[in-house]
TrEMBL record:
Residues 2-83 form the GST N-terminal domain. SUPFAM superfamilies: GST C-terminal domain-like, Thioredoxin-like. InterPro entries: Glutathione-S-Trfase_C-like, Glutathione-S-Trfase_C_sf, Glutathione_S-Trfase, Glutathione_S-Trfase_N, GST_C, GST_Phi_C, Thioredoxin-like_sf. It comes from the Eukaryota. This is glutathione transferase. The keyword Transferase applies. Residues 90-210 form the GST C-terminal domain. Gene3D superfamilies: 1.20.1050.10, Glutaredoxin. It holds the Pfam family GST_C. Keywords: Cytoplasm, Detoxification, Transferase. Belongs to the GST superfamily. Phi family.
Length: 210
C-alpha cells in the first residue's frame, strides 16, 4: 500500500478529480467517506485536514494537502513514473499546461459548476432548478466551448496531443452535464464532442462512476 488516503465524497466533482488522477497512475488508495449532509466537512477532525471545510483532503503518508487541483498536480509529479503521463515536459509545454488548468478553473468550472448545481445537485437537496439561471449560464458555457472547439481543431487534447491534467480536470463536471439538457452544447461542436467522448470513456473516468 502507498499509504494514500482521500477524504471526500464519491459524488463530489472535486473528489472525483483526485480519484481519476489516482486511477490514471494505477495507485492504491483509501477513500474515506465524508458525510456532507451531516456537515462532517465543517467539523473536527476534518477541519484539521482542511481548515476551509471543503472536500477533498489528501494524505500520502505524512504529507497532507487540500485543493483538488493541487492534489492532482502532486500526484502527477510525485508519481511521474507510474501509470499514464499526465504532464507535458519542457518549460514551454508546462506553461501551456498551466494556462490550460487556469482556463479550466476560471472559465469552464465557474460556469459548468453552476449548471451542475442547478440541474443535478439541487435534486439531491430537494430544491428546484432555476431555468432562468440555466439559460443564462448555458450562453456563457457556449462561448467557452466555442474557444475549446477552435483549440481542439488544432490539437487532439486541450494542452497537447496527449491526455494531461488539463483534460482530466474537466471530466467530473462534464460527466454530470452529459445527463442534462446542457449535453447539447457539447454535441453541437464536433471537435468538443469527440474530445468529450474520448476523455469520458477512459477507464479512469469509468471507475469513478461505479
Amino acid at each position: 500500500m502507498s499509504g494514500i488516503k482521500v477524504f471526500g465524497h464519491p459524488a463530489s466533482t472535486a473528489t472525483r478529480r483526485v480519484l481519476i488522477a489516482l486511477h490514471e497512475k494505477e495507485l492504491d488508495f483509501e477513500l474515506v467517506h465524508i458525510d456532507l449532509k451531516d456537515g462532517e466537512h465543517k467539523k473536527e477532525p476534518f477541519l484539521s485536514r482542511n481548515p476551509f471545510g471543503k472536500i477533498p483532503a489528501f494524505e500520502d503518508g505524512d504529507f497532507k494537502l487540500f485543493e483538488s487541483r493541487a492534489i492532482t498536480q502532486y500526484i502527477a509529479h510525485e508519481y511521474a513514473d507510474k501509470g499514464n503521463q499526465l504532464l507535458s515536459p519542457g518549460s514551454k509545454n508546462m506553461a501551456i499546461l498551466a494556462m490550460g488548468m487556469e482556463i479550466e478553473a476560471h472559465e469552464f468550472d465557474s460556469v459548468a459548476s453552476k449548471l451542475g448545481w442547478e440541474q443535478v445537485f439541487k435534486n439531491f437537496f430537494g430544491l428546484t432548478t432555476d431555468q432562468a439561471v440555466v439559460e443564462e449560464e448555458e450562453v456563457k458555457l457556449g462561448k467557452v466551448l466555442d474557444n475549446y472547439e477552435a483549440r481542439l481543431s488544432e490539437s487532439k487534447y486541450m494542452a497537447c496531443d496527449h491526455f494531461t491534467l488539463v483534460d482530466l480536470h474537466h471530466i467530473p463536471l462534464i460527466q454530470y452535464l452529459l445527463g442534462t439538457p446542457t449535453k447539447k452544447l457539447f454535441d453541437e461542436r464536433p471537435h468538443v464532442s469527440a474530445w468529450v467522448a474520448d476523455i469520458t470513456s477512459r477507464p479512469s473516468s469509468q471507475k469513478i462512476l461505479v
